[in-house]
Amino acid sequence: MTPASNPAPDGSVPVTPDLADGARNFRLRMAVIDREFEVALDMACDRYGRTVHTGAAAAARAHRNRAAVEAYTTHLAPHADTLLDAARSVLDELPPARHLAGWRAVLDGLAASAAEIRRALDRPAAPGSPAERTQHSTLWPHLAAWADHSSVVGDLADQTKHHPRAPLTGEEQRMWTERARAAQQRGELELTESWYAADGQPITLAHLVESDDSTLVALRGDPDAPGWQVIGHYAHEYEAGKALPAPVPPGVLRADVSRFNRPAPAPEVSLQELIRDVVEGRTSGDASEALLGAVQRGYISGPMVRLQELLETSGQFAGALETVQGRQIAARLAALGRQIEFLTREVEEAAEDLGATVAVLPPHRTPVLRIRPRPAVDTTPPTPPPRTSTPARHR
């Protein structure tokens, strides 16, 4: 009888260590598989990231798919349905929060993927055959979905094993909150870690420094916005972790992004290569082409354009934190992005002007041989410098 069919007395699905560890071990194994695949794929590409050895790339992809199927069979196949049942049971008992509907959709999607994987594992193709490779390739999106999102399932299931203490209340909470706010004004409230609890409330650990003493406290709410409160004080991080609500998986910046199903990166030229092109150039056109490569837009964008994209994306991330500091940093990054955009246009104009000069380096800038010619065979080697001898000391 499976754990799912033998519920606990309170009606919840019991969570065993094997059940809780299965999703975690699968994610770890998939991370290794993904890294090995990236290394193999890099070897099939040229210096600009373009695939030139299609056979090697296809073999690497087939190996990745087969290893992922084996990892799922080992770590998740025996527990997937029970793990989903445990997660749903916990989800039904949580107080209303903005993220619950999204988590339910994740659980439903993972359940559908588990069903597809189970059907394929029940009817495996002949080992090593083209049909097996096709079957594994078809399963890859479902395996990647579990690798990307099984942390939601595992963390929800783990909630049943965590029993936090009640937070501070009344006069004690007011006293500790006032002490923490005073320390914050002095610059002596050092934030160390934060997470979200299952009810959607942020929790932050901080060291409250007073004179020569430091106390670990837990805050509920945004530390940079009005209304946050101290909900506990602890001797060390381990005690805080046992007493506070367990963390839930952080959110994502973009809902449709998958670590294990990344699109192929666009070819790009590094700044080092562009600098080398200028150093090795002889004409103004050579330097102009390198500068234009740095500001090129489109599919093969240059480094300066990529930097602007990085600032823009990082600004979106900072804003998505939904904190006071996050919004302020997002505004700073947006301003920096505008400066990079202005600088990019300036570099592009300078590059075009440099190319229009049609100039070449003057001939007096002669190269210097890096290797000295070897002496002729009948040439007497130079006399080495005399060795200075020191008299031996006698005892």
Describe this structure in words.
The chain is α+β, with helices and mostly antiparallel strands. The protein folds into three domains: 3-161, no CATH class; 170-243, no CATH class; 271-356. It has helices spanning 17-43, 54-75, 80-93, 100-122, 130-158, 170-186, 237-243, 271-280, 284-294, 303-320, 324-356, and strands at residues 189-196, 202-210, 213-220, 229-234. Strands 1-2-3-4 form a four-stranded antiparallel sheet, with helices on both faces. A hairpin with a 2-residue loop joins strand 2 (202-210) and strand 3 (213-220). The longest helix is centred in the C-terminal third of the chain and has 33 residues, at 324-356. The protein is extended and about 90 Å long.
Give the CA-based shape.
extended
Question: What is the gyration radius calculated from CA atoms?
Answer: 31 Å
- Class derived from helix and strand content: alpha+beta
User: Helix share of residues?
Assistant: 40-55%
Spatial separation of the terminal alpha carbons: 90 Å
By oligomeric state, this entry counts as single chain
Number of helices: 11
Q: How many domains, in number, for the residues?
A: 3
**Main sheet strand line-up:** 1-2-3-4
Q: Mind describing the biggest β-sheet? A: 4 strands, antiparallel
Low-confidence sequence ranges? 1-11
Mean pLDDT: 89
Number of strands: 4
Strand content: 5-15%
The helix-strand sequence is HHHHHHEEEEHHHHH
Provide keyphrases for this structure.
four-stranded antiparallel beta sheet, 395 residues, 3 domains, disordered N terminus, alpha+beta, 53% helix, extended
